[in-house]
Amino acid sequence: MKKVKCIIGALAVLVLMLGAAECFAQQNVKAPDALTVIHSRKSVRNFTGQAVSREALDTVLRAGMAAPTAVGRQPWAFVVVTDRKTLDTLRDGLPYAKMLGKAGAAIIVCAMPEKAHDKKIEFALIDSTCAGENILLAAEAIGLGAVWTAAYPYKDRMDVVRKTLRIPDDVIPLNVIPVGHPTGIDKPKNKYNPENIRWEKW
Amino acid sequence: MKKVKCIIGALAVLVLMLGAAECFAQQNVKAPDALTVIHSRKSVRNFTGQAVSREALDTVLRAGMAAPTAVGRQPWAFVVVTDRKTLDTLRDGLPYAKMLGKAGAAIIVCAMPEKAHDKKIEFALIDSTCAGENILLAAEAIGLGAVWTAAYPYKDRMDVVRKTLRIPDDVIPLNVIPVGHPTGIDKPKNKYNPENIRWEKW
Question: Model pTM?
Answer without folding.
Answer: 0.88
